[in-house]
Write a structure and sequence with these properties.
The structure holds two protein chains of two kinds.
Chain A: H1 4-8, H2 25-28, E1 35-41, E2 65-67, E3 74-76, E4 89-96, H3 102-111, H4 124-132, E5 141-144, E6 166-168, H5 185-201, H6 206-222, H7 225-230, H8 237-242, H9 247-261, E7 265-270, H10 279-303, E8 310-316, E9 319-320, E10 332-333, E11 335-343, E12 350-352, E13 354-355, E14 362-364, E15 367-368, H11 369-379, E16 387-389, E17 395-397
Parallel strand pairs in A: 1-7, 1-8, 4-12, 4-15, 5-6, 5-7
Antiparallel strand pairs in A: 2-3, 4-11, 8-11, 9-10, 13-14, 16-17
Helix pairs in contact in A: 5-6, 9-10
Chain B: H1 2-10, H2 21-33, H3 39-47, H4 53-62, H5 65-80, H6 89-104, H7 110-119, H8 130-133, E1 136-139, E2 142-145, H9 147-159, H10 178-186, E3 192-194, E4 198-200, H11 232-242, H12 244-259, E5 264-265, E6 275-276, H13 279-291, H14 296-304, E7 320-321, H15 324-335, H16 337-340, H17 346-353, H18 361-374, H19 380-387, H20 404-411, H21 414-425, H22 432-445, H23 448-460, H24 463-466, E8 467-468
Helix pairs in contact in B: 1-13, 2-4, 4-14, 5-6, 7-11, 9-10, 12-13, 12-14, 21-23, 22-23
Classes of the chains: A alpha/beta, B mainly alpha.
Chain lengths: 410, 469
């Protein structure tokens, strides 16, 4: 197993500049979690039809509950393979958010802060990349998403471009992103360098130094473990099949390869969860994609010993209403929905929080979104009470007064 | 004006060499219209013998449509924050086009523009209302305008002070009190917001009850003055634009855009302790800007005609990385990108940008432009865009047309091609040694097409191109 990345970790940003905030070594020493993969369920997934089934109740509909690998923990029958990994998961069933609308909900769940005005908060991936750093020449944050552009929610915000996500749209063609950075790049860069030497002979300044670092990164990238990890063409067809063979599955497979190459944070998006009509058919088709991919990700990471250092998070911007609407759909539901943590550092086979029998009223342990963020940061060995500098110079806390849910952690 | 010129020279420590004509033209084009000059523009400027050609050029640029377009983006980024590629574009784009129309007018009075921004509503200057509409929140409790965040933002953007720090307690290092903060917020207390994202005209007594501030909010400006009429937002706007802080903050920001650093740093903390380069210069310039009716062109002209601005970068003028917009527009101008975009490979666009809806050169060009501008400068995405020679950015720099290089190779001998490539990118004539080296490169390479493609690419990736110097 290739663990060279951890020797390099913390040495600087991927561009080779010292990060303004290094990880606090004392805190980091407590945890071994090195990477995180977030499976982002865009649109807001139904909790009842996935990880919080309500068999026999009207709100539960036709979906059955099945036993899992963890005694007493039951999942929906739409996720039979994923259920085999429940012993490595903590299921948070009572996450609450004030945001009932997609854009604002995504912003809150991706950053841990409400969206107001001009400040753009960094996405969790950027935050972790910024705090933990990573090996030089490896982008710390990769976002595998179906829509092209990186939105306001999900970007580096005021933390700046070094920790901005590297976007991959089509995992099967991620190698195209490196096309044109082939063997000829060396000689072309030599030409640039000779032009620069003359220009910088009688000029100086920080921008020139940054450009130098930038060009040396480019030389590294062309033949880096990162570039190789992006190329799925050398995967065996069986491996692709194991993950389901579709775009999301390929994304999960790519996530595993990237984590192996030293990427700190990867998110993989699966859309289509906004099931306002015909809920059961829609959720059924989503789960048919999710189940093989998510279970393969656990299995593959475990087989390679990487599940001991990689955390996996399943979440979306909110959940769905327990009651069906007249179109047989479920609407937005931020008042008690499910987020699943798993893998490294996570307590296995646990359920945190309980709702009433219909899945409507929270009985105990509500988890606010800032608490969820604090939990994820703690999982990565980052003190959630830490402050960091914003672009306006103010020192802000990295979570909105979040307190980690200790019972979900190992 | 004479006094001002003297003061502008004061801003410089020593008497440095001035930029030569081509260096000056490049800098002022990037700063005023957001792109490098075209070869024809350089040739005619270099050839002109008129001693006042620099100030004439400044005026020509100031009154071009490109000035309005570039400065409306710049101001809109400063006031509203940068556009992202996925955000619902309509309100922000509407704000931009409104601002562009205002700056296009011969007198672009910043004070009037800001007053209209602060008093806009659904029925009055509705496109400008996008500024306020960013503070509308819809929560399960209902739709409301977050006047606390809004007040903090208004003070930050237009006055250069961090009033928000005084929201919960008196400011720790500045003079502002909690009363100051809530006094400014109070001017918005009658402003209503509705679900569709609009701001309505004044409503009846405010219903806002903020945590820790249960009483009624009453407007009171930072100088202690109270509104004299019921039109509270008008009252606030009038006070802000006549506040000396307003002129100082704006002048300082424009100075920092044009020279790489403000006369006071940091530019967003004008009343806290910081470093001042030439306090008397900032005072004088702010005073004159105010007397000139906050005319944007007056201010930009005053700075660009100064010796401080016209220093050579060899003499220590600050190097500035191009902004993404300057970068894109410059590559675009240098390579004829819009024309080349028609031939962009759909295939590549698919894997990079996720898809192209519709066809046509402008459609593709616009998609790529928006995508490029949303990438963080200096980040990994930019590495890919600027180094990957197969990327859409270099569509016009390919020997196999259409685009700048293709046309040149067909019609010009080698020495002319070299000159044209240097003029298009680094905005100066190549030296004899550079021409010789380029020709050597061509003969070594064997393929004329491949050699020039490489040279063009290298110039577009050189520090001399990518920095504003």
């Amino acid at each position: 197993m290739d663990r060279r990345r951890f020797l390099a970790a913390g040495a600087g940003g991927f561009l080779g500049f010292a990060l303004r905030n290094g990880a606090d070594p004392l805190w980091a020493a407590e945890r071994t979690t090195q990477s995180m993969i977030v499976l982002w369920m865009d649109g807001g997934p139904s909790q009842i039809d996935t990880f919080d089934p309500r068999p026999g109740r009207k709100t539960g509909g036709p979906v059955r509950a099945i036993e899992t690998s963890a005694p007493g923990v039951r999942f929906s029958s739409l996720l039979p393979r994923t259920a085999q990994w429940a012993h490595r998961m903590s299921v948070l069933r009572t996450v609450v958010s004030p945001e009932n609308e997609h854009e604002r909900g995504s912003y809150l769940l991706r950053t841990g802060f409400g969206s107001t005005g001009r400040i753009v908060h960094p996405a969790l991936g950027s935050l972790i990349a910024f705090q933990k750093g990573g090996p030089s020449g490896i982008p710390p944050f990769v976002s595998i998403r179906t829509s092209g552009a990186v939105g306001r929610a999900g970007d580096a915000g005021f933390l700046g471009s070094e920790v901005a996500p590297f976007p991959v749209l089509d995992p099967a063609r991620a190698h195209d992103l490196m096309k044109g950075l082939d063997g000829t790049v060396e000689s072309r860069l030599d030409l640039v360098q000779s032009l620069n030497t003359e220009f910088s002979a009688d000029r100086a300044g920080e921008p020139i130094d940054r450009r130098k670092a930038f060009l040396s990164l480019c030389r590294k990238l062309t033949d880096s473990p990162f570039a190789r990890a992006l190329d799925l063409r050398d995967e065996k067809p069986e491996a692709v099949q194991e993950y389901g063979g579709d775009r999301f599955g390929m994304g999960c497979l790519l996530a595993r390869r990237l984590v192996e190459a030293g990427v700190r944070f990867v998110e993989v998006e699966l859309g289509g969860w906004d099931t306002h009509s015909d809920n059961y058919r829609e959720v059924g088709s989503r789960c048919a994609i999710l189940d093989p991919a998510m279970s393969a990700l656990y299995r593959d990471l475990d087989r390679r010993g990487l599940l001991e250092e990689t955390a996996i998070v399943w979440m979306g911007e909110f959940g769905r209403t327990p009651d069906l609407n007249p179109q047989q759909g479920r609407d937005h539901w931020p008042d008690g929905f499910t987020v699943v943590l798993g893998g490294a550092g996570v307590g296995g086979g646990r359920v945190i929080g309980e709702l009433d029998a219909d899945g409507k009223e929270i009985r105990n342990d509500p988890v606010r979104v800032p608490d969820l963020m604090a939990t994820l940061l703690t999982l990565m060995g980052i003190d959630p009470n830490k402050r960091h500098r914003t672009s306006s110079g103010a020192a802000d806390k990295i979570t909105d007064q979040g307190r980690p849910v200790r019972s979900a952690l190992d | 004006m004479l006094g001002l010129v003297t003061l502008l020279v004061l801003g410089v420590q020593a008497e440095p060499p001035l930029a030569d004509d081509t260096e000056f033209l490049r800098r002022v084009s990037l700063d005023l219209i957001g792109r490098v000059p075209l070869p024809a523009e350089i040739r005619s400027f270099a050839a002109a013998s008129d001693p006042s050609k620099r100030s004439r050029k400044i005026d020509e640029l100031l009154f071009s449509p490109e000035f309005a377009s570039f400065w409306s983006s710049r101001l809109s980024d400063g006031w509203m924050g940068p556009l992202s590629a996925t955000e619902p574009a309509a309100p922000a784009a509407g704000f931009r086009s409104w601002l562009r129309e205002r700056i296009q007018q011969p007198q672009a009075r910043i004070g009037d523009i800001v007053r209209d921004v602060l008093t806009a509503s659904d029925s009055v200057q509705p496109r400008a209302a996008a500024f306020l509409a960013r503070f509308i929140e819809t929560t399960p409790r209902g739709t409301e305008l977050r006047i606390d965040a809004l007040a903090g933002d208004v003070a930050y953007v237009f006055l250069g002070v961090r009033l928000r720090c005084a929201q919960c307690h008196d400011h720790p290092v500045d003079r502002w009190t909690q009363e100051d903060f809530w006094g400014v917020a109070g001017f918005f207390a009658k402003t209503d917001a509705h679900r569709q994202g609009g701001v309505r005209d004044e409503k009846e007594p405010q219903r806002y009850a903020l945590e820790g501030q249960r009483g009624k909010l009453s407007p009171r400006y930072l100088d202690g003055s109270l509104p004299e009429s019921g039109a509270w937002r008008n009252e606030l706007a009038r006070r802000i634009v006549s506040d000396p802080l307003f002129s100082r903050a704006f002048v300082n920001r424009v100075w920092s855009w044009l020279l790489g650093a403000g006369l006071r740093e940091p530019v967003d903390r004008m009343t806290e302790s910081g470093t001042s380069t030439a306090p008397e210069l900032l005072d004088a310039l702010a005073g004159q800007f105010s007397v000139a009716g906050h005319d944007l062109r007056f201010l930009v002209r005053a700075i660009c005609t100064s010796r401080a601005y016209q220093r050579s970068s060899k003499g220590g003028a600050r190097l500035r990385p191009m902004t993404p917009l300057q970068h894109f527009e410059s590559v675009s101008a240098a390579t004829d990108l819009p024309r080349a975009a028609a031939e962009m490979s759909d295939d590549l666009i698919l894997s990079v940008m996720g898809g192209v809806n519709g066809t046509g050169e402008h459609k593709k060009y616009r998609i790529f432009r928006r995508w490029f501008l949303s990438a963080a400068p200096g980040g990994i995405q930019q590495v890919l865009y600027t180094l990957n020679r197969d990327f859409p950015l270099f569509a016009g720099a390919k020997a196999a047309g259409p685009g700048k290089l293709h046309d040149l190779l067909r019609s010009e001998p080698d020495a002319e091609v070299v000159e044209e490539l240097y003029l298009s990118t680094v905005s100066r004539f190549p030296t004899e040694a550079e021409v010789r080296r380029a020709r050597d490169h061509v003969s070594r390479k064997g393929s004329r097409e491949a050699a020039f493609e490489e040279l063009f690419w290298a110039l577009l990736n050189s520090d001399e191109f990518l920095l504003n110097h």
